[in-house]
């Protein structure tokens, strides 16, 4: 599936609009602060007196007293599909390449001058990052929800439907798009395309095996509609990104909450807070760290605090130590043209 390509640089957009913090590699506390309309804390770093009572997005959303009515159109998940997803994950995580194959591979990369940044777009963007996005709202019949899924289906009281899963996944894909578009154009576009391709390949599988849609023509029609929806999601969230939280909240309401008139605005606010946290973390990663797959979504029950200049220096130094050997020698597979600058 092709996607409209709109380049938005996090480096120019995020810093004026939000002052939040980053999950650090050495375990600093994590809290949120927004300089726009949503409720947040003041940037005092060492003074916690001004922190609001809500803190995390999930805690904020759970403060609502609105009643929850279970959606009767809940889609039952196919247990066989769940087993297949689990098997795919176990294979990708537990697989170890034989040493001789690794040696041959390194030699081929060196001899043919293969651009590993393009190769990583598939394994990182089309595999790891996609699984991260789809898992946020993934749920199966008669199975316990993950802590992240509970935020959407229990705390935010969203219906457990295929369409809702699509919206939750699309939101997280857009978050990654924002950072990918700040990469060099050639690589950022490739990462985006791999992510989108995997998304629609997975939806085709869900429609045929999970939703039991057997007609190829009908599946193609559904995928075309979802492609149009994804474009709309990206454009509406982009508008909120480059304007203010009120516009972003409106985009969240239209997409994630399906424009419901009785929506709890506290829930919308919690999602905006959640989005700003993710964007700040992404903004504080170098292209190489992000391109190598070092990003993970901040959980809804976590918040971020601003890093001090000293903490930023420590994180940057650790990144350079990880990716740049002191002797200047790197395995061909570890070489990258992506920058380590922030």
UniProtKB/TrEMBL annotation:
It comes from the Eukaryota. GO terms for biological process: mitochondrial respiratory chain complex III assembly; positive regulation of mitochondrial translation; protein stabilization. GO terms for cellular component: Cbp3p-Cbp6 complex; mitochondrial membrane; mitochondrial ribosome. GO terms for molecular function: mRNA binding; ribosome binding. Residues 318-328 have a biased composition (Basic and acidic residues). Residues 318-342 are annotated as: Disordered. Residues 154-297 form the Ubiquinol-cytochrome c chaperone domain. InterPro entries: Ubiq_cyt_c_chap, Ubiqinol_cyt_c_chaperone_CPB3. Belongs to the CBP3 family. This is Ubiquinol-cytochrome c chaperone domain-containing protein. It comes from Pachysolen tannophilus NRRL Y-2460.
